[in-house]
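Lecture notes, part 5. Sequence design as translation. It can be helpful to think of inverse folding as translation between two languages: the language of shapes and the language of residues. The source text, in structure tokens, appears below.
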């Protein structure tokens, strides 16, 4: 099983959005028996909470399920349990590296590294910006490209 983990600060906006979008793409590609998806936050502020209302609204708009999703905090063992740890910004990466202590920081990749023809270096947090549509656009494109990357790398 290929395991993908999306990480942001609180695990209520960006990373659950990415988890839901990526899970939907995986399912539509008939790869849900081969790829497992999860998300986590580097903070413990929202543990057990459902995704933010803005995230739920944008996912509903595009008919993407977020059923059963609850915020959780990133754990040290996540570095061993996931082949792909995808972070939303440099601060998330720095904090995640402190928590997980992977053998190499190459194991954590910015979602924006998969964007083509964009100058964005991070996925802005709509909790602060209020722009869930823009965040969704970045997440969707990043997830589409990430899935292509995994399919090529894993020969799926």
């Amino acid at each position: 099983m290929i395991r993908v983990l999306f990480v942001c600060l609180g695990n209520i906006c960006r990373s659950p959005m990415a988890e839901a979008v990526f899970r939907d793409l995986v399912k539509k590609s008939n790869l849900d028996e081969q790829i497992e998806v999860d998300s986590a936050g580097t903070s413990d502020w929202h543990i057990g909470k459902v995704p933010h209302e803005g995230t739920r609204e944008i996912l509903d708009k595009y008919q993407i399920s977020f059923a059963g999703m609850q915020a959780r905090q990133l754990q040290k063992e996540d570095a061993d349990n996931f082949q792909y740890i995808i972070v939303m910004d440099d601060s998330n990466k720095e904090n995640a590296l402190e928590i997980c202590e992977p053998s190499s920081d190459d194991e954590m990749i910015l979602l924006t590294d998969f964007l083509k023809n964009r100058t964005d270096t991070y996925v802005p947090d709509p909790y602060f910006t209020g722009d869930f549509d823009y965040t969704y656009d970045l997440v969707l494109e990043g997830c589409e490209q990430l899935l292509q990357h995994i399919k090529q790398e894993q020969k799926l």
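The translated text above is only one of many valid answers, since several sequences can fold into similar shapes. Strands lie at 2-8, 35-41, 84-87, 108-110.
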